[in-house]
Fold this protein.
Amino acid sequence: MVEGRGVQSIEVGGRLLRALVDVGQPAMLRDLAGAAGLTPAQAHAYLLSYRKIGLVEQDEVSGRYALGPFALEIGLVRMRGADPLRMASKAAAEFAADMGLMVTIAVWGTHGPTIIQVQESTRAIHVNLRAGSVYTITGTATGQLFAAFMPAAQIRPLLEEELRGTGGTERKVGRATSEGRLERDIAAIRTLGYSTTEGVPVPGINAISAPVFDHTGQMQLAITAIGNEGTLDCGPESAQAAAVLALSRRLSSELGHQNPERAAPVSAPRRGRPRAPADAAEAPRRSRTA
């Protein structure tokens, strides 16, 4: 879509609002002006207008500016109208096309981590993933991702079933491992902010998975990119890992989640074939999916 000419003054004023959001707390005029690339006099004129409509408020004692009640109303309307699955579906389709990778969206369902959508790759990837497939918690990266970021009380009942080999675990994707290994993987995932696997359970298939959070900090879904080992790099300084993490953060931001930027992503230490957690672990073995 070709964008028409906008209103420059609104765009300039938007830089002030962005500065208020980025600062995250009441700020002085000079600091906001500097962050927005304006002179204090220019910034003051915009802030005065914003105060009149309730978009900004000023503390009478300190003189600091903060977002006002109208800004809160705007935010609440935006959050009520946000559809995480619709946004994720569109973003996953675009990402799959741009990167040449398979992309899956998974949510926490009644029986555990469950695929709700699969975006196929333009390249041949010898795995067969379907909406409705349920992953083990300990044996897949998506499962481990939910275990790392969902409330423990929510994970525990299904985790205990899985470790006992009950609850239909034999029909789930990915071989269950152990609680001890899960704890180690969770520690790595929380440090990295995402999970990866190389060649597990399908040889030659790699995957990178990252979480999407809402405005309350609750994990809503997992975005997983899957590709052949020669296509999807899970190693240190991986551009694809950075891209998957950037996608999940963008979706989280659109849902109102605020999280300080982490350092550039690095992969977890190698432990044999699987890397930190497992997530091409999402992909069933070919013998199971033929």
